[in-house]
Design brief:
The protein has eight helices and no strands. Helix 7 packs across helix 8 (118-189). It has 190 residues and is mostly helical. The chain has helices at 2-8, 12-16, 19-25, 39-53, 60-71, 75-81, 90-105, 118-189. The protein has one domain.
């Protein structure tokens, strides 16, 4: 598990040399806890990244970096996971969030026709902001919890598997030593 994250996450130097991150966070980026690859750091980074991915405001990467620094969790994972919602996935994700929020608030859903003008955006947002924010908060919370517990579970599963391999190697070594002793004692008797 640790090897997977080590190879798939961006290198530390990419974050430490990023001009916008350095402008906002400065020396806070040099906290070694932000770069650790342990169970709690990765699980927390997963939770922060998935939560922020469903925040319907710009600047998600900076928000994820700030929360990772605040909670002292894995920064590269947090920042990388905000791309779960990207230009291809944002429309369906936020539409589902709007539908869920409207259902939870007991409001009728409006038929939305997508447009890419500022007038459409502000007019539509004025009508749907409450259900959208509620739905996004629910999706963010659920995905953060699932991500956190999934990492904890997979990490423990990996540790158990490694311990099992270690036990099997020890048993094999003991059997090998026992067979060597048996052959040595049988040679001595004849």
């Amino acid at each position: 598990m640790k090897k997977f994250f080590k190879h798939s996450l961006p290198h530390i130097s990419l974050f430490k040399s990023h001009p916008k991150l350095n402008k906002f966070f400065g020396k806070l980026l040099h906290n070694p806890n932000l770069w650790h690859l342990n169970r709690h750091s990765l699980a927390g980074g997963m939770a922060v990244g998935l939560f922020v991915a469903f925040v319907p405001f710009p600047g998600q990467m900076l928000l994820a970096a700030g929360l990772a620094i605040l909670f002292s969790v894995n920064l590269p994972l947090s920042v990388s996971l905000v791309w779960v919602t990207n230009p291809l996935t944002i429309p369906p994700a936020f539409y589902l969030a709007y539908k869920l929020g409207a259902m939870l608030l007991g409001l009728p859903t409006q038929a939305l026709e997508f447009g890419f003008s500022p007038e459409w955006f502000f007019h539509t947002l004025a009508n749907i902001w409450q259900p959208l924010l509620l739905g996004c908060f629910v999706f963010a919370s659920i995905s953060a919890l699932i991500g956190y517990w999934l990492v904890i579970f997979l990490w423990r599963l990996q540790v158990a598997r490694l311990w099992q391999i270690r036990r099997e190697k020890r048993r094999a070594q003991k059997r090998k030593l026992a067979s060597l002793k048996m052959t040595q004692t049988s040679k001595i008797k004849f």
